[in-house]
Amino acid sequence: MGGEFADTGILFDRERRGYSARQVDEYLREIRTQESGHLSRIRQLEHELTLVLRQRDWECRVSRERENQVESLQNRVTQLSEEVSALERAAGSTSAPGMRIQKMLTLAEDEARAVVREAKRVADEIAAAASEESRELVRAATDQLAKANSKVEEAEAVGARLVGEAREEARRIAAEAAQVRDEVDAEVKFRREHMDAVLQSELERKRQQAETLIREQEDEALRAAEAIVAAARVESAAVAEKAQFFVENYRREFESIELSRNASVWQMVALRDSLEGLIRSCGQMRGVPELERRMEHAVRV
């Protein structure tokens, strides 16, 4: 459905938020183009009017020069007439030369009058034609200027009305946009708060799950560590028991060896004492020092 301006006949399509912005812009561009064309035509007519006025001034100046020439010719004719009259009075009315001079002067006067009449006629025609043409051009230029001014005023009025409607539409759209923006802001705020609450709840649930999982993993790790420690303790006890067994065996064997050694030492001491007694009783025998040396070596061993 469209909207129409009664005085211009322009029809614009109505859209959701007023007239079609594209058609309004196109019409405004067309109005500006027509206005520019009218202004160009006005400048052209003003230039032509200036040329016509200059032509009229020139023709008036030429006409005045022709009139001056005619006046000069008339003065010359008057002067010639006076000279002829003087010659006629001097020569007499019956002489032949006087008749010829009179005839020549009459012809010259007639010719001068004819020239004056023709010059005056031409000057009058030129002046009349120039004046009429100037008036016609002035009337045409004035009419064109009036039409152009009317078109410009009409275009300015339409443009002003369209601009006013566009501004009013812009204000209405701005108000609607502000209302929509407020509604959107409120909706966004509500959704943000809702999402924040949902995210907070989800984060709390995830945190509790993580804490539960961490506790379960800690308990499982503690149980595994306790099992490892218990196994290590059992193994350590077994190793300690086995080591104690070996130590006890080694200690008993060492004690047995120590007893055997001590017994051997006491036996060797007893044997040495016996041998010393025997040596003292047999001091005169040869090889006694060698025998003592061997006995001492045996005792040390």
- Please give the share of residues in helix: over 70%
Average pLDDT, rounded to a whole number, is 71
Gap from first CA to last CA: 139 Å
Main β-sheet, in a few words? 3 strands, antiparallel
Low-pLDDT runs of 5+ residues are 1-8
Number of helical stretches of at least 4 residues: 3
Strand content: under 5%
Q: What structural category arises from helix and sheet content?
A: mainly alpha
CATH class categorisation of the domain at 2-198: Mainly Alpha
SSE order, as H and E? EEEHHH
Strand order of the largest sheet: 1-2-3
Protein architecture, described:
There is one protein chain. By secondary structure, this protein is mainly α. The protein has a domain of 197 residues: Orthogonal Bundle (Helix Hairpins), CATH 1.10.287. The protein contains 3 helices and 3 strands. A 3-stranded antiparallel beta sheet has the order 1-2-3. Helix 1 packs antiparallel against helix 2 and helix 2 crosses helix 3. The chain is rod-shaped, with a radius of gyration of 76 Å. The N terminus is likely disordered.
Keyphrases for this structure?
three-stranded antiparallel β-sheet, 301 residues, mainly alpha, 3 helices, 3% strand, disordered N terminus, 3 strands, Helix Hairpins
Gist of the model:
The chain has 301 residues and is mostly helical. Helices cover 90% and strands 3% of the residues.
Question: What is the topological layout?
Answer:
Layout: E1 2-4, E2 11-15, E3 18-19, H1 21-91, H2 96-281, H3 288-300
Antiparallel strand pairs: 1-2, 2-3
Helix pairs in contact: 1-2, 2-3
